[in-house]
Amino acid sequence: MEAKKQIHDLLSRSADLECFEDRHELSGASSDLDVGALRKGLRDKLAQLEASPNKRVHHDDAIPTGIAELDDALGGGFLRGRMIELVGRKSSGMSSFAVNLAARFTSMGEEVAWVDSCDALDPQSLIEAHVNPRHLLWIRPDRRRLKHALKAADTILDGGGFGLVVVDVLDRFKRSSSVPSSVWMRLAKRLEHRNTTCVVLRHYAGISSSYYRLRFEGSRMCQTHIDVEKVKRKSVHTPSIPMAFALPGD
Amino acid sequence: MSEPVKDVHSQMIACLSVPRFSLNALERTFRYGESDSLIGLVRELPVEATKRLEVVSLELESLGVFAGMTVAHARALVPDISVRARDSSCEESGLDALRDLVFSCSPNVEIGRGSELGLIWFDLSGLHLLYPKLEDLKTYVELGARRLGFDAVLGISKSKLWSKLATNLALSGGHTGIVVNDSAEQRLLELSLSLLSLPTKLRHSLERLGVRTIRDLLKIPRAELLRRFNREEGLSIKRAVGHAELLKCERERERFIETLHLDEPIWDLNMLMHCASEVIERLSSRLELRGHYAQSLRIDLDYDGKGAYQTLIELSTPSRNTRLWREVVLLRLESNRPDAPVQSLVLECITAPRSKEQLDFFTKSVSVTENLNLLVTKLERHCAPNGVGRMQSGNSYVQDDAFQVPISHKIIEYGRRTPEWISGTPRILRRIRPPELVEVDWDQGLPCFVKGEGFIGRVREVYGPFRQCGEWWRHDVEVEEESETLQERGFYWDLYDLELTDGHCLRLLHRIRGARSFVVGIYD
Fold first, then answer.
1. pTM value?
2. Does domain A68-244 fall into CATH 2.30.29.30?
3. Is the pLDDT confidence value at B414 over 50?
4. Cα–Cα separations (whole angstroms), residue A40 to A16, A30, A31
5. Which residue, of B216, B233, B350, B409, has the greatest Cβ tally within 10 A?
């Protein structure tokens, strides 16, 4: 991706050079440069890059999400010791994605903690998603207070021993973006050198300490789309990845 | 490659074996010259030519001197041999150090005495959470022992005896010493009965029966075998076939003392501190293993039999910093210079009481199960009553009551299964608790417009109705307020899954009696 960007940049500069040449503003030394040949070479390189399959670093210890395109974009899946931010509006499919991730972890015999700040978890849905309830610790903070939810998440990450910690701070009415970034930074710091993956569910993006940000765009019952963003590099990695759902009654 | 654990619920015992324990204990206390690598130990002083060597160094073994030889025999083979007597105070101090190491892994520890000196067993149940790979644990313990001055090997298996045999396998080379799966156990089964420390009479009896290996012993029906022998012998047989044995657990002892004996008395304090630096490092490692910090240091100096000097140094803040310790000890000794050359030095750490932060989860001296119970207790402070726990099945007819969360201190059950990869992605409902009353417009028996708090829109797609009824057979449940007669009990609902034009996907509950509609959750 970076290489392509650089080549596009060089191509635009070469166009400027041509323009200058036409206006006879280049010095003699500069006019020795064969701009046409340079542009041709760059175009060839760009075509070559676009034709080649998208090679990404594949991590062996990553946990696959089950969506092939997404796993490819994430380098094999979610890495341990990282914080992942899931962002989307209501009914965008974030919770379904997180529950399916929890199902994967519990099926591997790992422990999952779910901090349910707004008491919205539906046990029946979890069972339908094949989450093993024996490996799930459900934490419902007192009076649905965000402060308690974050403290509970901090306690869990400090304690360790969990494969996945889901921090659900989606609220029906309030904005969860009011959480200071230092809180997320602290949680991300807790994760370092641990075997835990932390997934945070939010309506608005803004956790700068997260490793990946997955944006969910969808409002249909049957499908959603996921955009992957690597937060530290500020670059969108993929075009939208479709994620299909089973329809009610199926 | 990591060996998969067969069943983590079953007991797993680790055996830490220090083959030359007495020698290592002496070496870490006494500072000898390099020529003293050819060293052998007899039980007690005086060293006489007819006494038998109990432990010999590796270098001596390579020259053909083995434990059990007389001193005279050994001297004939290696004239430069240095023979010393075992020192019980050094051994006790060495056991303290090893005790600190194993208590940092497990609270259930048995320390071998007498003929089993140098063997320490500890229970590994639940430790797979801290050490997913047993190799990591093995490396941690063996490296820790090396830092404390012991050449140790760790064996892991399902019983005390088998873990001891596993250390023998590791010592013989070519095996990790981790015997937790069937293929590894096959190697143990081939071992001769003579290795099992069975009573001689019992071994002979078994040999007469044609039983020569553990495998032979396993083939004989257990009941038959136990009927033939008495109770003591029966227990020995059970041990031999890997039957779980309870450890004779010891209490923790938090005594941090290290001693240094010098062959030549030293005047120079810098030289003394140079010699003592190893002792200081070891003491700091021991404190680290147990999660302690030193509040004060007690120093005992022995002046070559011409008196002694004792001092206590209070540290301004609890510390494990060896550099700081060296500096403060040197400063104290410089201000009170020794009257005579120093022959030996005893350093003791008096630990600071544990701070609140130190009493946190997963301090290594606490078992994992205890930590999880602590974690749940701590989480309960942030949660509603019954707000933390795992789900349990309840009344499956009433959706919101289908699962209840009990306060449970045994939440996490250990166990690993092979991954079951899940196909398909079901849509998850986010509950609205309590369900929200909404206004619904109906068209031909189906909802066409929904208005509620936070969502409003025309219905784009309808799935359902999915009819639910129940509880009508019970007389102890409350009657729905809309029921026409008291005889009509239970509930009758229609559930619809809706897609709205504003992008919301809802689950609508329509009470047939009373014709009221609620949104019970939003699909997300």
1. 0.47
2. no
3. no
4. 15, 18, 17
5. B233
